[in-house]
Amino acid sequence: MTIRPRRSALYMPASNLRAIEKAKSLDCDVVILDLEDAVAPDMKAEARANAVAAVKAGGFGTRELVIRVNALDTEWGAADLAAAAGSGADAVLAPKVSSAEEVGRYHAALSSAPAMGFWSMIETTRAIFRLDAIAEASAARPACWVLGTNDLAKEMGAKLTVDRAPFLGMMGLAVAAAKGHGVGVIDGVYNVLDDQEGLEAQCRQAKIFGFDGKSLIHPKQVEPANRLFGPSEEEIAWAEAAIAGFAAPENAGKGAIRVGGEMVERLHLAEAERIVAMAKSS
Ligand SMILES: CC(C)(COP(=O)(O)OP(=O)(O)OC[C@H]1O[C@@H](n2cnc3c(N)ncnc32)[C@H](O)[C@@H]1OP(=O)(O)O)[C@@H](O)C(=O)NCCC(=O)NCCSC(=O)C[C@H](O)C(=O)O
Ligand SMILES: [Mg+2]
């Protein structure tokens, strides 16, 4: 099993050449070159050109390269999509995706790049009530969702607390819908730059929910995300014991066995194999 980890997905404004250059030396799994909210209107064209040039120039190693475009219904959307489609990036990330039909429009706009991934920001209240349909439509291409808690909070009038009480229901639903259709899913950003404790609490919470990783806004957020979304020593030990347990001749034909102090069923083997593969690839 090969796994492409997405523990840490670092955004940067594509108008910021220094940040783009710095990303090449950072240990993030995903680089998101942003053309949307982090870029002022008068810098949009320059940011688009920077993003395409950076992807074409390369130097990002195994990091997954994603361009976040402006929405198709904005004055920049069509040009962003066309440029991203020809860039060679691993995926395009579209903001505020709110319906399966919208996913279809983006897929059509990317028809010249059939292998390119299409990722969606899940950050509108309308999307929350259409998650299963959006996930089903998304799965026609390599897909991943990124939660946009800033936009959700804005629309809902909710507060962005560390514990994210207003968002817990939708976090669980987003993970369930995404995973149900084989779509990746990455948690939203933590805006506070000087609170590693709060960031770590959100990483632990998101991992428990089943998110693959966290979207990030600053280099110093990368190490905690990698550490906390990667498998812990305890998880690796459990996974190895579960795999060895089911491989043992005395357990042939058994659907459930004891591993340490816990019941492990055959249905847990897939998770055990994923943990071991993740440990090898990160
Ligand atoms: C938040 C920032 C504006 C802070 O900038 P600044 O105070 O200038 O940072 P530092 O001085 O601490 O930077 C130290 C060095 O690190 C580099 N740096 C900083 N941020 C990044 C980054 N994101 N990627 C790569 N490199 C970065 C600086 O260049 C410094 O390097 P050096 O000079 O060599 O020492 C800034 O961090 C920032 O712009 N962050 C990203 C903002 C962004 O992209 N926002 C959009 C995505 S978030 C979003 O939209 C969420 C979603 O849609 C939702 O709805 O929730
Ligand atoms: Mg947003």
From TrEMBL:
Keywords on record: Lyase, Magnesium, Metal-binding
Binding site for substrate: R68, E123
Pfam families per UniProt: HpcH_HpaI
Record carries keyword Transport: no
InterPro entries reported for this sequence: Aldolase/citrate-lyase_domain, Citrate_lyase_beta/mcl1/mcl2, Pyrv/PenolPyrv_kinase-like_dom, Pyrv_kinase-like_dom_sf
Keyword Disulfide bond: no
Annotated Gene3D superfamilies: Phosphoenolpyruvate-binding domains
Ranges for domain HpcH/HpaI aldolase/citrate lyase: 7-219
PANTHER family in the record: CITRATE LYASE SUBUNIT BETA (PTHR32308:SF10), LYASE BETA SUBUNIT, PUTATIVE (AFU_ORTHOLOGUE AFUA_4G13030)-RELATED (PTHR32308)
Official protein name in the record: CoA ester lyase
